[in-house]
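Lecture notes, unit on binding sites. The following record was shown on slide 14. It pairs a sequence with 6-O-alpha-D-glucopyranosyl-D-fructose.
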Amino acid sequence: ITETPWWKTAVVYQIYPRSFADSNGDGIGDLPGIIDRLDHLAGLGVDVLWLSPVYPSPQDDNGYDISDYQDIDPVFGTLADFDRLLAAVHERGMKLVMDLVVNHTSDEHPWFLESRSGRDNPKRDWYWWRAEPNNWGSFFSGSAWELDQASGEHYLHLFSRKQPDLNWENPEVRQAVYAMMRWWLDRGVDGFRMDVINAISKAPGLPDGEVRNGSRYGDGSPHYLCGPRIHEFLQEMHREVFAGRPERILTIGEMPGVTVDQAKRFTDPERREVDMVFQFEHVGLDRGEGRFDVRPLQLTDLKASLGAWQDGLNSTGWNSLYWNNHDQPRIVSRFGDDRSEHRVRSATMLATVLHLHRGTPFIYQGEELGMTNAPFEKLDDFRDIESLNHYAEAVAAGADPEQVLSALRVAGRDNARTPMQWDAGPNAGFTNGLSWLPVNPDHVEINAAAAVADPDSVYHHYRRLIDLRHTEPVVAHGDFTMLMPDDEQVYAFTRRYRATELLVLGNFSGSPASVPVPAGWEGAETVIANVSGTGPLPSTLTLAPWEARVHRRT
Ligand code: ISL
Ligand code: CA
């Protein structure tokens, strides 16, 4: 087990710029707003900032539909603002990673405007055009193909019709993407989070997908996720973009559907593909067919899944660790209990269990405050294209509108996109204008100002967890052994590195939970806990609701 590279002891913080801090009163977060708030992040102790897209975009999918890869959308600021942000981040000893969205562009990108202008246009083959579509459905409902009237052909879009898929079979496309990536690295950025990057290699012939339970469309994902040339493309990207660059450069692949075995190949350093991947197994355990089919979580399923990823990547490859991002509802409302008597305790338990796993933890903006899902009432409270399209399609297919709305409230991505809650004042200090998406009313209690002032807050618990990762080698480099795999209340595991061992215990329930204290652990000191005054490990232990504690022995 090697102690390098640096990102094994790093913590990444994801900023969703649109909802982070608005400096000019237009109700939309921007780059100057981020600069004004960097001390909050430096105070937390995070090492890397990952910025969701700030490039020019029609904002059909909130910036994941890019119309110019080498500029900044005026709503977020200018390239000069970006350079100021980058310098300010580096001054604080932090790194900045951009969001690379190259499975698709916006339909307003000049490349696509040329491609759609005629069948014989030199860029026609930069996208996927077919006379007849296959049966694939889009992630955002409906067909994955859109008819272009002018040319009479259909183009592929796995996401919205304003997000046409680039054709990575075309070497011109690949070289254009690599040149753009080098341009950003030459500007000084410290790497990329690569959006749905395992979709760039499609199966030859684009075969139909299986049609399931009455859907109008087939599931094409076996034919476009981790397709036949995916490793070839990522190794070519590494040669063309990252080889010879300083080792400070970080690459993270977002890979829906990726398995442990595939992730071992993607993150094996010898293969020179990516440093780590975002996988989706654990955030699918409380879902049936798709994001809005909400089921209860079984803790034993969660332990089996995360445990398998710990075992699979223990000696080769590396895990990223997350509960939250801009596509997931808030974890304290999902796997915890966001009612006021349990919110802080369950949020800090979830943080402790995740951050003590082997891998690089990612914190999504507001997670460090224990921010919760927001109270969406009616359909037009929602903004997210995925939610709005799903509602329209489900109701048109006969679903009960109230049932669909309740699924949007629980599972919709807008839950993660309500503005960052800075203080108890108007609009939580996010904007002095009209916010693009209403601030969660609970900002009066849940906000950064209150959290920083309260030593027992979620914020300070995250700060202590990050500090522990920076100072205690076993957290980053220790192996992982799951305990009590069949227990439906308690998440328990050990980490061991050289002479140091940690015992991590988390009560994933609102009821007390008895824990058999493993032999030889009695009296072990407490390293971190979410119940103040937690002492050495007693010989018999009952965890309070949502209690977490980490003990150490050497
Ligand atoms: O939200 C999902 C579908 O229900 C996720 O599967 C998500 O769409 C998928 O992981 C890819 O996400 C990324 O690409 C999308 C964008 O909408 C997401 O915000 C981004 O994280 C298209 O660019
Ligand atoms: Ca603004």
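Take-home: The first strand starts at residue 12 and ends at 15.
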